[in-house]
Fold this protein.
Amino acid sequence: MANRHQENLAVLDFDPFSLEVLANPEPYDVLARESAPVGFLSRYDVWVLARHQHVQAAFADWRTFSSASGTGLTHIKRETPWRTPSRILESDPPQHDAYRRVMARVLSGGTLAKLRAEFRGAADALVDSLLERREFDAAKDLAEVFPFHVVPTALGIAPAEREMMLIYSELNFNSMGPNNSLQQASRERAAPFIERVEQMCRRESLSGDGLGARIYDECASAGLTPEDAALLVRTFFSASMDTTMNGIGFTIQALCENPDQWALLSADPSLARAAFDEALRYRSPSPYIGRTTTCEVEVEGVVMGADEKLLLFIGAANRDPRKYAHPDRYDIRRRVTGHVAFGTGIHACVGQLVARLEAELVLEALARSAATIELAGTPGYQLNNWLRGLSTLPVRATRKQ
């Protein structure tokens, strides 16, 4: 490893994946970002970039900061990963390009227009039913229920199989971090379902008219294998579910905690997408992503060696005061262009268009129908190595007259 005793380098001795930090991560984001331009997590032997400028630059420079050795802590070219690597997230050009083109063709403008029409009715019906109750859990009953219904339906996954996919997805994100108690618990929970989830992503398990079938057709046209298609189905499910659920939950929480912002959205429901994007910046559901250097590289005078792991602190970068004025304020009229919650460049989140569509429609439905929404209890938080989200968000809402 390269010399650690350099100017502009802070040796960070906290554990981002400890229960203590996961329960209250923001102070540690600030510590990583403000201590120095470059950090080094001593307990994991990984570099840290936490300022927006550096995180964005690393996303853009895939030749130097590679995804092909894994986007978690594990160096998958040195250690055998627990699952087959993602064809999109854990590869670089030229291998990456063919898979990305497949997904671009599947998620065409026409497809998104069709999904918008299908999702809108589901969003309106869900919000209407929740407002009848007046009090509900916005994390479980809304932010989780809506994506959990519309995404698997769009992919063509049978309803009876969907709970397994969420358990598998939880393991996927916990496994991006260290082999700690959280990862071990996820492995035990998911062990009975791993083989079944792989089967569910095969063509014979999917409906003939969903996005999953389209992925298989486009892969065949591009000369890719059925195994490639199955892995793209798996990736699309994960990319469109957990972070979307958490992002919607955080948006509703921020709106409850900032009544002036709810008033703006309620008066103009077309601000729904802006409210979601600002929430992604304000409280990023996916706070970290891993990269591996392909050569010796210098950042702010700090030299990193070749084939060394680094973490990009996305949540910290999205609150960088060098990029955003008053970054700790939730403001749905803010110009959030450049936030890195979905990544950027060739490895930007493959499911972000669908995620934004889901969030826009369900938040718009809420803003059209609800006069007020406020916290009705204490929010609870998930503990996951690689995700931030709410486990519970009790709210009270009244209907517009």
Remarks:
- DSSP finds 15 helices and 13 strands in the chain.
- The mean pLDDT is 94.
- Residues 86 and 235 are 7 Å apart (CA to CA).
- The domain at 9-399 is CATH 1.10.630.10 (Cytochrome p450).
